[in-house]
Amino acid sequence: MNSNAYHFPFLNPPHRARSVAGFLLSCLLCILCIVSPGGSTNATVFEPREFDDPILVARYRTLIEELRCLVCQNQSLADSNAELAADLRQEVYRMVSDGADEEAVKSFMVSRYSEYVLYRPPVTMVTLLLWLGPLLFVLAGFVFLVFRVRHRANSIPPPPLSGTEQESVEKLLGR
To answer: Which residue intervals define the domain CcmH/CycL/Ccl2/NrfF N-terminal in the entry (predicted)?
Structure first.
């Protein structure tokens, strides 16, 4: 046996073969994890609903486009394939087929999930503050800077004139 094999077991040929096989199996496992689909492959993005009236179909489609999926980032119920979105689409379908109008469906969803469920929330003082708040902070900062600069300009006295400067001023003024 090689004397280096005792100190360096990876130089032993059978051990090297096992490590190469383990490395290849690890690579194969990584490739399979990368290539395999991540989620449920049987989830559908939009389940078509059967209505007798085309007005109800239009109302249903409008509602699922205007309501936000609470799980997904910035997707409507129509675009989302999350399980909660499917449940909410089913609830919207049930309410529309029972004769509820758009406002009734929206108010039901808002009562359960808050105004976050609406893509276009109503304009209230809170939403105005959210949209105009940053602009108001920028304007307040600008006004503060203008007043600060004006106050500083008025508070710093000019340096006294030297003798030659004083003579040239008096000469210009005609004294």
So the answer is: 42-173
